[in-house]
Specification:
Elements lengths: L1 H82 L2 H7 L3 H29 L8 H18 L11 H11 E4 L2 E4 L2 H7 L2 H19 L5 H18 L23
Helix pairs in contact: 1-3, 1-8, 2-3, 2-7, 3-5, 3-7, 4-8, 5-7
Length: about 260
């Protein structure tokens, strides 16, 4: 009986040890599975982030050149209005054709810039970009220009609220299948889209008023021109398309808002 009891105790001990070992293995496996799941989640998140950043870079690369040229054209027109009496020469003292061009091309340059800006926004709005530095910097520059166009710190002249900027940009975007681009000046002039005119007619009136008295408009124009130059520095930091001397910022008047 003693022998049988010892054997039974041994069997029970082995069973207990096997049970504890199995419990320990299950616990270890559970912890390992959890760690593997977390690691897989982190790796997938990083892969998704890299893919989103790569996609955003493709969008910026695709539209970098037209946006850069739109920014250059608009800042150049502002510079010519403020520093080189463009409106005095071509609107006040110009022929009928020159007067029409001075107004229409000026408002077109605003609409063109908003069109390319909106097109890029549409292309990247659903990408999870996290802390991608380049795209974050681009968005900061966009937001700054949106604010400078809409703020009433510079009065009401040449002001476009955020919704108006978006509406103009949307109307300037042309989509043909998978291809997307911004309307050119020829189509803009020939079409005279009533929807565009609704948003642009106040700007046309402001341009004509600038020809009479530029000073009330100067602070906003100068501020926007500076931000457009900053955007050009971001898009073309090595001066490949536009040399440094073509990016002259207009001097601010004393007391002018930043």
């Amino acid at each position: 009986m003693v022998t049988a009891g010892v054997a039974l105790l041994g069997t029970i001990t082995v069973a207990i040890l096997n049970y504890l070992s199995a419990r320990k293995q299950d616990h270890f496996k559970s912890k390992t599975d959890a760690k593997l799941a977390n690691l897989n989640f982190e790796l997938q998140s990083k892969r998704d982030q890299r893919l989103a950043e790569a996609e955003a870079e493709k969008v910026l690369s695709k539209f970098r050149d037209p946006l850069l040229h739109a920014a250059y054209d608009l800042q150049s027109r502002i510079y010519n209005i403020v520093e080189l009496v463009f409106l005095l020469r071509y609107f006040t003292k110009g022929s009928k054709r020159e007067r029409t061009y001075a107004v229409e091309n000026t408002v077109f340059l605003v609409a063109q810039f908003l069109g390319w800006t909106e097109l890029i926004r549409q292309e990247i709005q659903f990408l999870d970009l996290g802390n991608d530095e380049e795209t974050s910097r681009f968005r900061q520059l966009q937001d700054r220009l949106y604010t400078q166009f809409q703020t009433d710190d510079y009065g009401r002249g040449f002001c476009l609220f955020a919704g108006e900027q978006r509406a103009l940009g949307e109307l300037m975007v042309l989509r043909l299948g998978t291809d997307a681009r911004c309307m050119g000046f020829a189509a803009f002039s020939a079409d005279r889209n009533p929807s565009l005119d609704y948003w642009l007619d106040p700007l046309r009136a402001d341009v004509k008023q600038m020809a009479k008295d530029l000073e009330p408009f100067r602070p906003r124009l100068v501020t926007i021109q500076h931000s457009l130059i900053d955007l050009m520095e971001f898009l073309d930091p090595k001066y490949i398309y536009f040399p440094e001397e073509s990016r002259t910022k207009i001097d601010r008047a004393d007391g002018e808002l930043m």
